[in-house]
Amino acid sequence: MFSSNPLEYIYIVIIGMAAVSYFSRELPFVILKGRKLKPGIVEWMGYIPIAVLSALLIPALLIDSESKKLFISLDNLFLITGVLTFIFGLFIKNLFAVIIFGVSLLAILRYFV
Question: What is the pLDDT of residue 20?
Answer without folding.
Answer: 97
